[in-house]
Amino acid sequence: MDASELTRGKLIAAACGIALFAVMFFSWFDTSTVGGTDFSAAAYAAGVDTTIDAWQAFAFIDVILLLTVLAAVGAVVLSLVSRSPAPVAPEAVVFGLAVLSSLLVLYRIFNPVLDGGRKLGLFLGFLAAAGIAAGGWLAMQETAAASRSRRRPVAPPRSSPF
């Protein structure tokens, strides 16, 4: 295990990834007022839960969110177990997927599923996805700074007396 490659950015991205996975099971939308008709009283009387989570609400956004979680946590695992550098920087993959996830959730904040009400899980999901993006960005910056510091300084060219 090599913990020297484990940076603060990767840890932030992984922690936010775990949080996003948990938040995906929270209520994201309330569908009791679909189509302009309020079914909340009838649903409450019947004991029906009218809220839906990310897994129920989305057709493919939930898959993108899950891939983002796996990439964020996988970057930490890869840093701990890998001895050779990856062909593609995992930080860049995490950042790209997290930005995509953030934009998709932001779209659903402005355009909710089934024109339903927005619940707390939706906003927490956006914050977690944005946190993964911030952690991925920080990890990219830390990796670039570490690679610059590993290079040997180049000696300045010698000046000619002529």
Overall mean pLDDT stands at 85
- Secondary structural class: mainly alpha
Count every beta strand, where a strand is a DSSP E run of 2 or more residues: 3
What is the tally of helical segments? 6
Which strands sit side by side, in order, in the main sheet?
2-1-3
Instruction: Summarize the biggest pleated sheet.
Output: 3 strands, antiparallel
Rg, Å, rounded = 22 Å
Q: H/E order of the elements?
A: HEHEHHHEH
Shape: elongated
Distance separating the two termini: 55 Å
The amount of beta strand, in percent, is: 5-15%
As residue ranges, the low-confidence spans are none
Helix content: 55-70%
Could you explain the architecture of this structure?
The protein is mainly alpha-helical. The protein is 62% helix and 6% strand. It has helices at residues 8-23, 40-46, 54-57, 61-81, 90-110, 120-150, and strands spanning 27-30, 51-53, 117-118. Strands 2-1-3 form a three-stranded antiparallel sheet.
Summarize the structure.
This protein is mainly alpha-helical and 162 residues long. The chain has six helices and three strands, in the order αβαβαααβα. The protein has a three-stranded antiparallel sheet with strand order 2-1-3.
What are the SSEs and their pairings?
Blueprint: H1 8-23, E1 27-30, H2 40-46, E2 51-53, H3 54-57, H4 61-81, H5 90-110, E3 117-118, H6 120-150
Antiparallel strand pairs: 1-2, 1-3
